[in-house]
Specification:
The chain has about 140 residues and is of the alpha/beta class. It is about 40% helix and about 25% strand.
Length: about 140
């Protein structure tokens, strides 16, 4: 079975402690790109997780790296913009819970239906809860 190639937008401390280790340990997934504004921390994370492609601008990452899906772990105010561009690129999307707890979750659910992608908006805390919405 082909591994799912995943990029992370917003590779901060929470993502590096919770999400990225799960991706790296999975036999079904491959971490292919990291995006974070802090170049120094980005380089440290790339070395730690053995990731070759790093970006400080998520648009550059989405334009440059072949991947199947993105994990969006940016500040809440950026979820909508990040998610919509990833969907436009034909990627599957996992976005953190705050998007689902506002009108953004409903908008993304509806918008995702126009794309050949999955949108997963997590509910509750951590990565345990979730709803998968198919486009």
């Amino acid at each position: 079975m082909k591994k799912i190639k995943i990029g992370v937008i917003g590779a901060g401390s929470f993502a590096s402690r919770r999400h990225i280790p799960v991706i790296v340990k999975s036999s079904d997934a491959e971490l292919v790109a990291l995006c974070r504004r802090d170049r120094e921390m980005l380089q440290k994370m790339a070395e730690h997780f053995n990731c070759d492609y790093t970006f400080t601008d998520y648009r550059d990452m989405l334009d440059s790296v072949e991947m199947d899906a993105v994990l969006i772990a940016t500040p809440h105010a950026l979820h909508f913009e990040n998610t919509m561009l990833a969907l436009e690129k034909g990627l599957h999307v996992l976005v953190e819970k705050e998007g689902a707890m506002s009108g953004l979750g409903e908008y993304l659910r509806r918008a995702g239906r126009g794309y050949e992608s999955l949108v997963m908006v997590t509910l509750g805390s951590g990565v345990g809860g979730g709803v998968v919405l198919e486009g």
